[in-house]
Amino acid sequence: MNKHLWFRGLVISTVILLPALAVLAADEDAPKPIRALLVTGGCCHDYANQKGILKKGLEERANIVVDIIYSDDTSTHPPLTIYGNADYASGYDLVIHDECSADVNDPKVVEAVLKPHRDGLPGVNLHCAMHSYRIGDPHDPVALGTPHGYWFEYLGLQSSQHDAQEPIAITFTDKENPIVKGMSDWTTIHEEHYNNVHVFDTAHPLAHGVQKLKRRDGETKTNDFVVVWTNEYGDKKTRVFSTTIGHNNETVSDPRYLDLVTRGVLWATGHLTDDGTPAAGYGAKTQ
């Protein structure tokens, strides 16, 4: 081969290869996406559609990949595949609980669901997750360390019921907390408002919701409950974020709701800065 042609070919190949190698190096240095497991299904909600709304909304707002475990069973004891497997969250950075499993109450099953979080894996809990895994009467006050308190201790708040659906006026009470910093109060559409039986000392409320209901006697009943909070769970002080808001699809798809849940995910996994913006490399993906 002509030496001139050979050298020219080598130069051309190098010019083509170097940018490709640079891209590969950049990819290796780029922050790895947060790996989140969304557990969903069960009674009383349109999880078939909400799971997609949440996945799309979170992945559009942050450097996160959401995998889904879903059951189309609409009972209060959906046969989710995580049950009986304490290692169900292996390889994930976070579990998002959005299931409605009110009658899944075997202490061994509940303990297995909690095992990753007891070991330090962050959690995010949405709406009916607060009414799941109830061992005993949910209206009875919790005795710490007992099976009745397993799930409520993880959440940091005990709730037992809701009234009729009416709008909820949400007011952020700790406006300097990075999860809600800069967010504006808003009023939802008709939504379920979960009560507070007990707020644990480990919990930190971020927002209250006020809902007014007309009683049969014509009087107005006002419910004022914590609707957004964080919790430090167990010996590992696991980061846990929860909101009771999110019954209807219109609320779940509301940009304000998705922004709130995204920040909760970022905070729980340690990727939220003090000013409420994502840590470097964990913001919305750019094309």
Molecular structure report:
Helix content is 27%, strand content 27%. The protein has 287 residues and is α/β, with parallel strands linked by helices. The protein has a single domain, classed as Class I glutamine amidotransferase (GATase) domain (Rossmann fold). Helix 3 (107-118) links the parallel strand 3 (94-100) and strand 4. The longest helix is centred in the first third of the chain and has 27 residues, at 3-29. The two termini are 43 Å apart.
Could you provide a short overview of the structure?
The protein has 287 residues and is α/β, with parallel strands linked by helices. Helices cover 27% and strands 27% of the residues. It is globular and about 65 Å long.
Full CATH superfamily name: Class I glutamine amidotransferase (GATase) domain
Helix proportion: 25-40%
N-to-C order of helices and strands: HEHEEHEHEEEEEEEHH
Strand content: 25-35%
Low-confidence stretches: 10-15, 20-26
User: What is the radius of gyration computed over CA atoms, rounded to a whole number of angstroms?
Assistant: 23 Å
Instruction: Based on the coordinates given, report the CATH architecture.
Output: 3-Layer(aba) Sandwich
Number of strands: 11
Counting structural domains, the number is 1
Q: Kindly, what is the distance between the CA atoms of the first and last residues, rounded to a whole number of angstroms?
A: 43 Å
Overall pLDDT level: 92
Q: Can you tell me the CATH class?
A: Alpha Beta
